[in-house]
Amino acid sequence: FKGGDTCEYLLSSGRFLGEKVWQPHSCMMHKYKNSEAKNCLIDKHIVFIGDSRIRQLFYSFTKLINPQVKEEGNKHGNILFEDKSASIKVDFLWYPEVNGSMRQRIKSWTEGSVAKPHIIVAGAATWSIKIHNGSNEALTQYKINITSIAPLLEKLAKSSDVYWVLQDPVYEDMLSESRKMITNEKIDAYNEAAVRILNSSSRNSKAKVKVFSVSKLIAQETIMKSADGLHLPESSRDTNAMILMNVYCNKIMKPIDGSCCQPQPPLTLIQKLAFCFFTLSIIGYLILSLIHRNNYRKNKSCTDLESGEEKKPAISPPNVSTLEMLLHSFCKLGLIMTYFYLCDRANLFMKENKFYTHSSFFIPIVYILVLGVFYTENTKETKVLNREQTDEWKGWMQLVILIYHISGASTFLPVYMHIRVLVAAYLFQTGYGHFSYFWIKGDFGVYRVCQVLFRLNFLVVVLCIVMDRPYQFYYFVPLVTVWFMIIYVTLAVWPQIVQKKANGNCLWHFGLLLKLICLLTCIYFLSYSQGTFEKIFSFWPLSKCFELNGNVYEWWFRWKLDRYVVFHGMLFAFIYLALQKRQMISEGKGDPLFSSRVSNGLLFLSVVSFLTYSIWASSCKNKTECNELHPSVSVVQILAFILIRNIPGYVRSVYSSFFAWFGRISLELFICQYHIWLAADTKGILVLIPGYPMFNVLVSTFIFVCVAHEISQITNDLAQIVVPKDNSTLLKRLLCIAGFFSGLLLFSAMQDQPRH
Length: 756
Hints:
Layout: H1 6-12, E1 14-17, E2 21-24, H2 34-41, E3 45-50, H3 52-65, E4 79-83, E5 88-94, H4 100-110, E6 119-123, H5 126-131, H6 136-157, E7 161-165, H7 184-201, E8 210-212, H8 214-222, H9 234-253, H10 269-300, E9 302-303, E10 310-311, H11 322-344, E11 350-353, H12 358-374, E12 376-378, H13 387-407, H14 413-441, H15 446-466, H16 476-492, H17 499-504, H18 507-527, H19 530-537, H20 542-546, H21 553-561, H22 565-581, H23 596-618, H24 623-646, H25 649-652, E13 654-656, H26 657-663, H27 666-676, E14 678-679, E15 684-687, H28 693-722, H29 727-755
Helix pairs in contact: 2-9, 3-9, 4-6, 6-7, 8-9, 10-11, 11-28, 12-13, 13-14, 13-26, 13-27, 14-16, 14-22, 14-24, 15-16, 15-28, 23-24, 27-28
GO molecular function, one term: N-acetylneuraminate 9-O-acetyltransferase activity
Organism: Chloroceryle aenea (American pygmy kingfisher)
Keywords: Acyltransferase, Glycoprotein, Golgi apparatus, Membrane, Transferase, Transmembrane, Transmembrane helix
C-alpha cells in the first residue's frame, strides 16, 4: 500500500494475536531456533549499549543463541557473552544516560583503528528522568547530547546495523517511590526528541539509524504484568529480541515464513522464459480473435442489389480452431499465473502469520456442514461410492483441509490426526478408483495413462516454473502420481488379469491376489529400508522431481505416512466388485446394502470403530508416535465412514451437490491454496484487505475458488488438445513433451550453477 518497506513496519507497528503472539503489520515473523540464530550471526560482534531495559533485551537476545544463559553478574556494569563454536560476541555496555561517556564510546567505534560492531542496539532515558527528578533542564540536556551522538551513529550506520530503542511506557501505579518521577508523559517527551533528532540528522536513507519503536506498542499491552512497573515481563522482551533477529537475519537466512525484511527474489531464467511465453500467447490470441471477428463481420450480411433483400450470411460463424483454443487457454492461464506471482513472490500484498484458536477452526466447519446438508439432491445411481458420492466426499474433505490450513490447526494434535485420515482417504480413493477402472475396463492403453498424468500434473508443472518451486514442494501431486503408476504397473504387467478374464476362470482371482500380496511385500520392504528407498529416488533425473532442500527425506516421510492406504483402496475395490458380481449386495434405491440383521450389525460396528479411532486420535500425546501407528489404523475410520454412508439405502441415494461441486475441483483447490489463499508457501495468510480480517477472507476466498474452477476448465480443455486419442498424433505430442522437459532440465541446471 505504501511501497511496502516491511523492515520499517516490523520495527514500528503490529498487534497481538491472542496474548503472546506478535503480528507485525503487513509481513510475517520467523521464530528462530538456536541453530538458525548461530548460522546467521556467525563471526559477528553485537553490542547493546544503554540502561537496565537494554540489558533485559541483551539477555533475551543471547538466549536465542544459547538458551542456557543465566541473568547474573553486575547489573550496573558491562556483561560479555561469547559463543566460541560460532565465533559470536555479544556485549552489554552499561551506559544508563545519553551523555559524554556514551558519546566517547560510540566515537571510538568510528575511528579506523577500532573494529566496528556489526550490530549496535542503543537506548537510554529513564535514568536521566530519575536522577534529575524529571526536570525540564534534563530533557534539554538530553536533546543536546543525542544531537551530538546522532552524526556518530549515522557514520556507523554506513557499515553496521544501528538501532535506537525508544523508551517503553511504565505502569505508574506499580512504580516504587524512588521512580515515581518517571511518568509516561516524560517518556513520550524524551521519545519525541530522540525521533525528531535522529530522523532530521539522516541525509542518506540507506545509512539511516533504525528507530526501534515497536517495543512501545508491545509494552502498552503487557506492562501491567511487569514485576516493578518499569521493566517488561519476559515474554515481551523475548518478542523484542525475536524482532531484532528477524530484522537482521531474514535477508541472510531467507526463511519461508519470515517475509519481513526479505527482498523480492530475482526472476530466474525459466521464469523469464515463462513470462515471454505467456505474453506471446496473449498477443497471439488477441491478433487471432481480431482477424476472426473482422472476417465474420465482413461476411455477416450481404445485400442483393437487384431485389434489395438481405441474403443469408455467406458463411456461418467461424468454429473455434485448435490453435485459438490453445492460445485462449494459455492467455487465461498467463493472467492467472501473474496473479499467483503478485500474491506470493512480489512484495505487493501483505502476509500475516497464522494463529490458531478452537473457534477459528470449528465455527467454519459447522457453517460449511450446514450449507452442505442444505444442498441435498438425489443421486443418478445408488451404487456404493458412486460418482456423485465420491465427488461429495472429496469436496467436504477438501473444505475441511482448507479450513485446517488457514486456521493453523496443525498445532492442535487431535485435529492434525483427523486431517491425516482425510489425506489418507484421498489416497484410498486413488487406489479404489484406478483399480476399479483397470479391472472393469481392461484399458491399459497409453492414452488413458497420459490423460491421468496430464490432469494430475499440469498445474503443478506450471507452478514449479512460475513460482520457482521444486516438484516435491507440492507433495500431494507427486504422491498420487507415483501411486497411480504403481497401480498401473501392478495390473498391467503379465499376466494382465481383468474382470472379463476372471469371470471365465475363478483361478484368475487368486492370481490377482498374488499380485496384490507382492505389492504389499514391496511396500513393507521399502517402508523399513529408508536407504534403498532414497537410493531409488536419488537417481537423476528422478532426484530433480523428488528432492526438497537437497535430499529426498521429505518425499520418504510423505510416502511412508500413508504407505498402506492405497493398497487398502485396491483391496476394497476388488472385494466390493466381487460381491457385486455375485449379487451378494443390494444396491437398489432405498434398499439396505445387506439383510437387516447384517446391515444393523455392520452399522453398529462401524459407528463404534469410527468413534474409537476419534477417541484414540484425541488422546494422542506425541505426534511422532501417532504418525508411526497412522498408516496401519487410518483405514479403520475410512472403512467405517464408507459403511455408515452406504449401508442405509436412503443415505446412499442422496448427496450434497454443494460438496460435490467443490469435489470436482478439489485438486486445483489443494494446489492453488499454496499461493493465492495462504501465503509464503502456506506458512502464512494472504492479506488483500488489511485491517478487516473477515472481509479479507471473504474476498480472497471468492477469488481463490473462482481461479481454481477456471484452472480446472483450462486443464480439461488442454488435455483434449495435448493428449489426443489418435496414437500417431499422441506419439508426436509425447516427443514434444519429452523435448520440453529436457529443455527444462537444461535450463534448471544452468540457473542452479550460480546458486551453488
